[in-house]
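User:
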Amino acid sequence: MTDAPDPSRVPGPPVAVDAVPAADATASGRSPRRRGRRLAVVAAVLVVVLAAGGGLAWWLRPDPAPAAVDLEPTGDLRAHDPALVVGDEGEPWYVFNTGDVREGLGSPQIRRSTDEGRTWEAIGTVWDASTRPDWAYEAVPGVQNFWAPEVLHHDGTWYLYYSASTFGSNRSVIGLTTNTTLDPDDPDYAWVDQGLVWGSEPGETDYNAIDPGVLVDDDGRGWMAFGSFWGGIQLVELTFPSGKAADPEAEPVTLASRTGAPNPIEAPYLVHRDGWYYLFFSRDFCCRGTDSTYNMAVGRSRTVTGPYLDRSGTDLVDDGGEPLLATTGDMVGPGGQSVSGGILAFHWYDAAAGGEITLGLRELAWDDEGWPVATTAPEQAAEAAGS
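Assistant: Predicted structure:
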Protein backbone atom coordinates (compact mmCIF):
# COMPACT_ATOMS: atom_id res chain seq x y z
CA MET A 1 0.00 0.00 0.00
CA THR A 2 1.39 3.41 -0.97
CA ASP A 3 1.40 6.27 1.50
CA ALA A 4 -0.71 9.31 0.77
CA PRO A 5 1.38 12.03 -0.89
CA ASP A 6 2.52 14.90 1.30
CA PRO A 7 -0.06 17.63 0.66
CA SER A 8 2.69 20.23 0.71
CA ARG A 9 4.09 18.57 -2.42
CA VAL A 10 0.88 18.49 -4.38
CA PRO A 11 1.34 20.86 -7.33
CA GLY A 12 -1.31 23.47 -7.84
CA PRO A 13 -2.02 25.87 -10.66
CA PRO A 14 0.29 28.89 -10.84
CA VAL A 15 -1.04 31.82 -8.86
CA ALA A 16 0.03 35.38 -9.71
CA VAL A 17 1.07 37.08 -6.53
CA ASP A 18 1.68 40.82 -6.84
CA ALA A 19 5.23 41.51 -5.73
CA VAL A 20 4.92 45.31 -5.60
CA PRO A 21 6.54 46.52 -2.36
CA ALA A 22 4.18 47.87 0.25
CA ALA A 23 5.78 51.33 0.02
CA ASP A 24 4.78 51.56 -3.66
CA ALA A 25 1.32 50.06 -3.25
CA THR A 26 -0.33 53.29 -2.09
CA ALA A 27 1.40 55.28 -4.76
CA SER A 28 0.08 52.97 -7.47
CA GLY A 29 -3.46 53.19 -6.18
CA ARG A 30 -3.56 49.68 -4.62
CA SER A 31 -4.78 49.96 -1.05
CA PRO A 32 -3.63 47.53 1.72
CA ARG A 33 -7.29 46.41 2.10
CA ARG A 34 -7.46 45.31 -1.60
CA ARG A 35 -4.14 43.50 -1.27
CA GLY A 36 -5.46 41.65 1.81
CA ARG A 37 -8.49 40.48 -0.15
CA ARG A 38 -6.21 39.16 -2.90
CA LEU A 39 -4.11 37.18 -0.40
CA ALA A 40 -7.30 35.67 1.06
CA VAL A 41 -8.33 34.50 -2.40
CA VAL A 42 -4.90 32.93 -2.94
CA ALA A 43 -5.18 31.07 0.40
CA ALA A 44 -8.64 29.79 -0.52
CA VAL A 45 -7.36 28.49 -3.86
CA LEU A 46 -4.51 26.69 -2.13
CA VAL A 47 -6.93 25.03 0.33
CA VAL A 48 -9.06 23.76 -2.56
CA VAL A 49 -6.01 22.42 -4.42
CA LEU A 50 -4.64 20.68 -1.35
CA ALA A 51 -8.03 19.13 -0.60
CA ALA A 52 -8.29 17.94 -4.18
CA GLY A 53 -4.81 16.46 -3.94
CA GLY A 54 -5.76 14.55 -0.79
CA GLY A 55 -8.93 13.28 -2.42
CA LEU A 56 -7.00 12.18 -5.48
CA ALA A 57 -4.57 10.28 -3.28
CA TRP A 58 -7.53 8.56 -1.54
CA TRP A 59 -8.97 7.47 -4.87
CA LEU A 60 -5.62 6.18 -6.09
CA ARG A 61 -4.90 4.22 -2.91
CA PRO A 62 -5.55 0.48 -3.55
CA ASP A 63 -8.26 -1.29 -1.58
CA PRO A 64 -6.90 -3.33 1.33
CA ALA A 65 -6.51 -7.04 0.67
CA PRO A 66 -9.31 -9.19 2.10
CA ALA A 67 -8.31 -10.61 5.47
CA ALA A 68 -9.82 -13.00 7.99
CA VAL A 69 -10.72 -11.86 11.50
CA ASP A 70 -9.36 -13.87 14.42
CA LEU A 71 -12.06 -14.31 17.06
CA GLU A 72 -9.28 -14.90 19.63
CA PRO A 73 -11.28 -17.42 21.68
CA THR A 74 -10.53 -18.03 25.36
CA GLY A 75 -11.50 -20.57 27.99
CA ASP A 76 -11.28 -24.35 27.53
CA LEU A 77 -9.76 -24.58 24.05
CA ARG A 78 -8.30 -28.09 24.08
CA ALA A 79 -10.27 -29.20 21.02
CA HIS A 80 -8.72 -31.42 18.34
CA ASP A 81 -10.52 -31.72 14.96
CA PRO A 82 -13.31 -29.29 15.92
CA ALA A 83 -16.75 -29.53 14.32
CA LEU A 84 -18.24 -26.07 14.80
CA VAL A 85 -21.93 -25.23 15.06
CA VAL A 86 -22.60 -21.48 15.01
CA GLY A 87 -25.94 -20.83 16.70
CA ASP A 88 -28.58 -18.41 15.55
CA GLU A 89 -28.49 -14.90 17.02
CA GLY A 90 -28.61 -15.16 20.79
CA GLU A 91 -28.16 -18.94 20.73
CA PRO A 92 -25.08 -20.87 21.96
CA TRP A 93 -22.28 -22.05 19.71
CA TYR A 94 -21.01 -25.62 20.02
CA VAL A 95 -17.81 -27.47 19.17
CA PHE A 96 -17.63 -31.25 18.95
CA ASN A 97 -14.10 -32.64 18.83
CA THR A 98 -11.97 -35.77 18.99
CA GLY A 99 -12.38 -37.66 22.23
CA ASP A 100 -9.90 -38.29 25.03
CA VAL A 101 -9.71 -41.84 26.39
CA ARG A 102 -9.62 -40.38 29.90
CA GLU A 103 -13.08 -38.84 29.52
CA GLY A 104 -16.31 -40.57 28.53
CA LEU A 105 -14.48 -43.64 27.20
CA GLY A 106 -12.99 -41.59 24.39
CA SER A 107 -16.35 -40.27 23.20
CA PRO A 108 -16.38 -37.07 21.12
CA GLN A 109 -16.25 -34.09 23.47
CA ILE A 110 -18.62 -31.13 23.57
CA ARG A 111 -17.77 -27.48 24.20
CA ARG A 112 -20.12 -24.53 24.32
CA SER A 113 -19.88 -20.75 24.00
CA THR A 114 -22.65 -18.38 25.04
CA ASP A 115 -20.91 -15.22 23.80
CA GLU A 116 -20.56 -15.87 20.06
CA GLY A 117 -17.39 -17.89 20.18
CA ARG A 118 -15.32 -15.73 22.49
CA THR A 119 -15.34 -17.91 25.63
CA TRP A 120 -15.60 -21.71 25.74
CA GLU A 121 -16.41 -24.30 28.38
CA ALA A 122 -16.36 -28.10 28.26
CA ILE A 123 -19.84 -29.51 28.95
CA GLY A 124 -19.32 -33.25 28.60
CA THR A 125 -19.17 -36.02 26.01
CA VAL A 126 -21.61 -37.43 23.49
CA TRP A 127 -21.89 -40.80 25.26
CA ASP A 128 -20.74 -42.61 28.37
CA ALA A 129 -20.23 -46.26 29.35
CA SER A 130 -23.94 -47.04 29.24
CA THR A 131 -24.62 -45.49 25.83
CA ARG A 132 -21.40 -46.14 23.92
CA PRO A 133 -21.64 -47.70 20.42
CA ASP A 134 -20.59 -51.27 21.20
CA TRP A 135 -20.70 -52.25 17.53
CA ALA A 136 -17.80 -49.85 16.80
CA TYR A 137 -15.55 -51.57 19.33
CA GLU A 138 -16.27 -54.89 17.61
CA ALA A 139 -15.67 -53.45 14.14
CA VAL A 140 -12.35 -51.84 15.10
CA PRO A 141 -10.50 -53.92 17.71
CA GLY A 142 -8.27 -51.73 19.86
CA VAL A 143 -10.15 -48.48 19.32
CA GLN A 144 -9.67 -46.19 22.29
CA ASN A 145 -11.08 -42.83 21.32
CA PHE A 146 -13.30 -41.52 18.56
CA TRP A 147 -12.00 -39.02 16.06
CA ALA A 148 -12.99 -36.02 13.98
CA PRO A 149 -16.77 -35.69 14.44
CA GLU A 150 -18.99 -33.86 11.99
CA VAL A 151 -22.34 -32.29 12.86
CA LEU A 152 -25.20 -31.54 10.45
CA HIS A 153 -28.70 -30.16 11.08
CA HIS A 154 -31.29 -31.42 8.61
CA ASP A 155 -35.09 -31.35 8.82
CA GLY A 156 -35.17 -30.94 12.58
CA THR A 157 -32.60 -33.61 13.38
CA TRP A 158 -28.99 -33.23 14.41
CA TYR A 159 -26.71 -35.80 12.76
CA LEU A 160 -23.34 -36.41 14.41
CA TYR A 161 -20.88 -38.50 12.39
CA TYR A 162 -17.78 -39.91 14.08
CA SER A 163 -14.74 -42.02 13.23
CA ALA A 164 -13.43 -45.18 14.89
CA SER A 165 -9.93 -46.27 13.96
CA THR A 166 -6.40 -46.85 15.27
CA PHE A 167 -3.21 -45.08 14.19
CA GLY A 168 -1.55 -46.49 11.09
CA SER A 169 -4.47 -48.70 10.04
CA ASN A 170 -7.33 -48.30 7.58
CA ARG A 171 -9.52 -50.76 9.47
CA SER A 172 -11.91 -47.94 10.18
CA VAL A 173 -15.59 -47.07 10.36
CA ILE A 174 -17.71 -43.94 10.27
CA GLY A 175 -20.70 -44.10 12.59
CA LEU A 176 -23.73 -41.92 13.19
CA THR A 177 -25.69 -40.78 16.21
CA THR A 178 -28.67 -38.40 16.17
CA ASN A 179 -30.44 -35.99 18.48
CA THR A 180 -33.34 -33.53 18.34
CA THR A 181 -31.44 -30.82 20.20
CA LEU A 182 -27.89 -29.80 21.12
CA ASP A 183 -28.96 -28.28 24.43
CA PRO A 184 -28.05 -30.73 27.23
CA ASP A 185 -30.56 -28.97 29.50
CA ASP A 186 -33.45 -29.76 27.16
CA PRO A 187 -35.56 -32.67 28.51
CA ASP A 188 -35.60 -34.18 24.99
CA TYR A 189 -31.80 -34.23 24.78
CA ALA A 190 -30.61 -37.77 23.97
CA TRP A 191 -28.09 -39.10 21.48
CA VAL A 192 -29.38 -42.21 19.69
CA ASP A 193 -26.77 -44.28 17.89
CA GLN A 194 -27.70 -45.25 14.33
CA GLY A 195 -24.79 -47.56 13.59
CA LEU A 196 -22.48 -47.86 10.60
CA VAL A 197 -22.42 -45.37 7.74
CA TRP A 198 -19.25 -46.44 5.87
CA GLY A 199 -16.19 -48.57 6.52
CA SER A 200 -12.81 -49.56 5.13
CA GLU A 201 -10.80 -52.77 5.41
CA PRO A 202 -7.07 -53.45 5.01
CA GLY A 203 -6.36 -55.22 1.74
CA GLU A 204 -9.87 -54.54 0.42
CA THR A 205 -10.19 -50.76 0.15
CA ASP A 206 -7.56 -48.26 -0.92
CA TYR A 207 -8.92 -45.54 1.35
CA ASN A 208 -9.42 -44.88 5.05
CA ALA A 209 -12.97 -44.33 6.32
CA ILE A 210 -12.39 -41.53 8.82
CA ASP A 211 -12.80 -37.73 8.93
CA PRO A 212 -16.33 -37.33 7.56
CA GLY A 213 -17.49 -34.02 6.11
CA VAL A 214 -21.19 -33.88 5.21
CA LEU A 215 -23.24 -31.54 3.02
CA VAL A 216 -26.82 -31.43 1.73
CA ASP A 217 -27.03 -29.86 -1.73
CA ASP A 218 -29.77 -27.62 -3.12
CA ASP A 219 -31.67 -30.67 -4.38
CA GLY A 220 -31.78 -32.20 -0.91
CA ARG A 221 -29.23 -34.89 -1.73
CA GLY A 222 -26.67 -35.69 0.94
CA TRP A 223 -22.96 -36.17 0.37
CA MET A 224 -20.17 -37.32 2.63
CA ALA A 225 -16.51 -36.64 1.91
CA PHE A 226 -14.02 -38.63 3.95
CA GLY A 227 -10.50 -39.99 3.88
CA SER A 228 -7.02 -39.91 5.32
CA PHE A 229 -3.78 -40.95 3.59
CA TRP A 230 -4.14 -44.19 1.53
CA GLY A 231 -6.13 -43.29 -1.62
CA GLY A 232 -6.93 -39.73 -0.56
CA ILE A 233 -10.25 -37.94 -0.18
CA GLN A 234 -13.38 -39.84 -1.24
CA LEU A 235 -17.06 -38.96 -1.73
CA VAL A 236 -20.23 -41.04 -1.32
CA GLU A 237 -23.89 -40.10 -1.54
CA LEU A 238 -26.11 -40.15 1.55
CA THR A 239 -29.86 -40.45 1.85
CA PHE A 240 -32.14 -38.81 4.40
CA PRO A 241 -33.74 -39.11 6.87
CA SER A 242 -31.48 -42.09 7.66
CA GLY A 243 -28.29 -40.07 7.06
CA LYS A 244 -26.62 -43.21 5.76
CA ALA A 245 -25.20 -44.30 2.41
CA ALA A 246 -27.62 -44.17 -0.51
CA ASP A 247 -25.89 -47.24 -1.94
CA PRO A 248 -23.63 -49.15 0.48
CA GLU A 249 -22.07 -51.00 -2.48
CA ALA A 250 -21.23 -47.88 -4.49
CA GLU A 251 -17.64 -47.09 -5.40
CA PRO A 252 -16.56 -43.80 -3.83
CA VAL A 253 -15.46 -40.94 -6.08
CA THR A 254 -11.91 -39.72 -5.46
CA LEU A 255 -11.87 -35.93 -4.98
CA ALA A 256 -8.30 -35.19 -3.90
CA SER A 257 -4.95 -36.90 -3.50
CA ARG A 258 -1.26 -36.16 -3.14
CA THR A 259 1.29 -37.75 -5.43
CA GLY A 260 3.14 -40.65 -3.87
CA ALA A 261 3.15 -42.45 -0.54
CA PRO A 262 2.21 -41.92 2.21
CA ASN A 263 -0.29 -39.50 0.67
CA PRO A 264 -0.65 -37.10 3.61
CA ILE A 265 -4.08 -35.61 2.94
CA GLU A 266 -7.19 -35.79 5.13
CA ALA A 267 -9.98 -33.97 7.00
CA PRO A 268 -12.21 -32.93 4.06
CA TYR A 269 -14.94 -30.38 4.59
CA LEU A 270 -17.53 -29.32 1.98
CA VAL A 271 -19.01 -25.81 1.68
CA HIS A 272 -21.54 -24.62 -0.91
CA ARG A 273 -21.32 -20.90 -1.70
CA ASP A 274 -22.38 -18.73 -4.66
CA GLY A 275 -22.69 -21.62 -7.10
CA TRP A 276 -19.40 -23.23 -6.09
CA TYR A 277 -18.67 -26.31 -3.99
CA TYR A 278 -15.52 -25.78 -1.94
CA LEU A 279 -13.46 -28.67 -0.61
CA PHE A 280 -11.38 -27.66 2.40
CA PHE A 281 -8.76 -30.17 3.50
CA SER A 282 -5.64 -30.63 5.61
CA ARG A 283 -2.34 -31.92 4.34
CA ASP A 284 1.06 -33.05 5.59
CA PHE A 285 1.50 -34.29 9.16
CA CYS A 286 -0.65 -33.73 12.22
CA CYS A 287 -0.46 -34.72 15.86
CA ARG A 288 3.24 -34.07 16.47
CA GLY A 289 2.93 -31.01 18.65
CA THR A 290 5.31 -28.26 17.61
CA ASP A 291 6.86 -30.64 15.04
CA SER A 292 3.55 -30.83 13.15
CA THR A 293 3.59 -29.70 9.52
CA TYR A 294 -0.18 -29.66 9.09
CA ASN A 295 -1.63 -26.95 6.86
CA MET A 296 -4.92 -26.23 5.13
CA ALA A 297 -5.77 -25.88 1.46
CA VAL A 298 -8.90 -25.63 -0.67
CA GLY A 299 -10.22 -26.34 -4.15
CA ARG A 300 -13.58 -25.75 -5.80
CA SER A 301 -15.96 -27.19 -8.37
CA ARG A 302 -19.28 -26.32 -9.96
CA THR A 303 -20.54 -29.80 -9.08
CA VAL A 304 -20.26 -31.59 -5.74
CA THR A 305 -18.71 -34.66 -7.38
CA GLY A 306 -15.87 -32.62 -8.88
CA PRO A 307 -13.44 -32.15 -10.41
CA TYR A 308 -12.08 -29.75 -7.77
CA LEU A 309 -9.42 -27.34 -8.97
CA ASP A 310 -7.20 -24.78 -7.30
CA ARG A 311 -6.70 -21.21 -8.49
CA SER A 312 -4.08 -22.27 -11.04
CA GLY A 313 -6.40 -24.91 -12.49
CA THR A 314 -4.60 -27.91 -11.01
CA ASP A 315 -6.92 -30.78 -10.14
CA LEU A 316 -6.86 -31.75 -6.47
CA VAL A 317 -6.40 -35.40 -7.49
CA ASP A 318 -3.06 -34.28 -8.96
CA ASP A 319 -1.78 -32.73 -5.72
CA GLY A 320 -3.53 -29.43 -6.34
CA GLY A 321 -4.72 -27.16 -3.57
CA GLU A 322 -4.98 -23.42 -2.99
CA PRO A 323 -3.06 -22.62 0.23
CA LEU A 324 -5.35 -21.44 3.01
CA LEU A 325 -3.50 -21.41 6.35
CA ALA A 326 -0.15 -22.73 7.57
CA THR A 327 2.24 -22.36 10.50
CA THR A 328 2.69 -18.72 11.49
CA GLY A 329 4.63 -17.64 14.56
CA ASP A 330 3.51 -19.62 17.60
CA MET A 331 0.56 -21.08 15.69
CA VAL A 332 1.96 -24.43 14.53
CA GLY A 333 0.25 -26.97 12.28
CA PRO A 334 -3.27 -25.56 11.81
CA GLY A 335 -5.76 -28.09 10.43
CA GLY A 336 -8.64 -30.47 11.12
CA GLN A 337 -11.05 -27.75 10.00
CA SER A 338 -14.78 -27.17 9.72
CA VAL A 339 -16.86 -24.17 8.64
CA SER A 340 -20.13 -22.89 10.10
CA GLY A 341 -21.80 -19.53 9.63
CA GLY A 342 -18.76 -18.21 7.77
CA ILE A 343 -16.46 -19.10 10.68
CA LEU A 344 -13.49 -21.41 10.12
CA ALA A 345 -12.74 -23.68 13.08
CA PHE A 346 -9.46 -25.60 13.34
CA HIS A 347 -6.94 -26.84 15.85
CA TRP A 348 -3.34 -25.72 16.17
CA TYR A 349 -0.39 -26.31 18.47
CA ASP A 350 0.69 -23.39 20.63
CA ALA A 351 4.50 -23.16 20.53
CA ALA A 352 4.39 -20.64 23.37
CA ALA A 353 2.63 -23.21 25.59
CA GLY A 354 4.73 -26.27 24.85
CA GLY A 355 2.63 -27.41 21.89
CA GLU A 356 -0.74 -27.34 23.65
CA ILE A 357 -3.69 -28.24 21.41
CA THR A 358 -5.68 -25.05 20.84
CA LEU A 359 -8.97 -24.17 19.17
CA GLY A 360 -8.74 -21.56 16.43
CA LEU A 361 -11.72 -19.57 15.14
CA ARG A 362 -11.59 -17.10 12.25
CA GLU A 363 -14.20 -15.30 10.26
CA LEU A 364 -13.32 -16.08 6.66
CA ALA A 365 -12.89 -13.35 4.07
CA TRP A 366 -13.45 -13.93 0.35
CA ASP A 367 -11.48 -12.34 -2.45
CA ASP A 368 -12.80 -10.88 -5.69
CA GLU A 369 -12.38 -14.23 -7.46
CA GLY A 370 -14.42 -16.06 -4.87
CA TRP A 371 -11.60 -17.77 -2.94
CA PRO A 372 -11.64 -17.98 0.85
CA VAL A 373 -9.00 -16.10 2.84
CA ALA A 374 -8.04 -17.36 6.33
CA THR A 375 -4.98 -15.22 7.03
CA THR A 376 -5.35 -12.06 9.12
CA ALA A 377 -4.14 -8.59 8.12
CA PRO A 378 -1.17 -8.71 10.56
CA GLU A 379 -0.14 -12.09 9.17
CA GLN A 380 -0.35 -10.76 5.62
CA ALA A 381 1.73 -7.73 6.58
CA ALA A 382 4.35 -9.92 8.25
CA GLU A 383 4.56 -12.15 5.20
CA ALA A 384 4.91 -9.14 2.89
CA ALA A 385 7.71 -7.84 5.11
CA GLY A 386 9.45 -11.20 4.88
CA SER A 387 9.28 -11.97 8.58
